[in-house]
Design brief:
single chain; 9 helices; about 65% helix
């Protein structure tokens, strides 16, 4: 009897697994349809503009529901879906989730110039604007090319200097002039610097954890409980970005753009 029960349980487990796999495949097939519907809703909402704000808001909510379902229930998690979802949230004036999804899209496509422009525009509209720390300003001055040049440009710079370095290294076998040696050293410095810059950017995007405040307001505190005093008088608002220091069950310690650390409730934030 026990053997029959175990056999039946095993059969049901395999059947459930097969059904789940089929559901994932089916949801992926539906994903493109849902995205098309969401794009149509968003396009119609933009056409209505200010003429029918209630109807436009309803269409935006429908578009968000479809994009969110695609991201949750299918494997279609690409930069375009996150970008389109961010655009809908931005139209709904939900800056927190707009910035969150623009940044998620950038993780998948860091060289998209239009995406970067939309993110910068959304950042300019948020309530909280932080002054950078003295250390950050110094770093941006010393390594201006790392901060000012796009990742794709720095990747091309690395490939170009890498190629030129080896061409000059071969040429040095036939020309031992001092100028050739100086050129080789300069190319080596540029090659190593550009490679380090690209490596740091990729590490920050994929290893360092970042997040965004999505609640309308969030009180930063000095510890992981509401019994702690606020870290400062002003509250944080939707769209405020941070770097994660540590995460606990209901609270997270974060570092703000100005270098100040504080604790925020997990229900007020979302991670990239």
């Amino acid at each position: 009897m026990r053997a029959k029960i175990l056999l039946l349980a095993g059969f049901l487990t395999i059947a459930a697994w097969a059904a789940e796999e089929g559901a994932v495949a089916l949801s992926r097939e539906k994903a493109l349809v849902l995205c098309s519907e969401a794009e149509a809703f968003f396009h119609e909402a933009n056409e209505l503009g200010q003429a029918e704000p209630a109807r436009a808001a309803e269409l935006c909510r429908k578009a968000v529901a479809r994009y969110e379902r695609v991201l949750k229930d299918s494997e279609l998690k690409n930069a375009r879906v996150y970008y389109n979802l961010a655009n809908v949230y931005f139209r709904m004036e939900d800056l927190g989730r707009a910035i969150l999804n623009y940044r998620r899209a950038l993780l998948l496509d860091p060289n998209d110039g239009k995406l970067q422009q939309n993110l910068q525009y959304a950042r300019a509209r948020r309530h909280d604007q932080f002054k950078e720390s003295e250390q950050t300003r110094m770093m941006k001055t010393l390594f201006f090319w790392h901060y000012d040049l796009r990742l794709k440009t720095r990747q091309k710079l690395f490939l170009g200097t890498f190629l030129l370095f080896w061409l000059n290294a071969i040429a040095l076998l036939y020309c031992s002039r001092l100028s050739c040696r100086v050129t080789l050293i300069l190319l080596l410095i540029l090659c190593v610097s550009s490679a380090g810059s690209v490596g740091v950017s990729l590490w920050n995007m994929h290893k360092q954890k970042y997040g965004v405040v999505v609640a309308a307001q969030s009180t930063p505190r000095k510890g992981d409980s509401e019994s702690y005093e606020p870290s400062f008088a002003e509250k944080l608002h939707a769209g405020c970005e941070f770097k994660l220091i540590q995460r606990r069950r209901t609270w997270s310690e974060v570092e703000l753009p100005d270098g100040i650390s504080c604790w925020l409730q997990n229900k007020d934030i979302e991670m990239l």
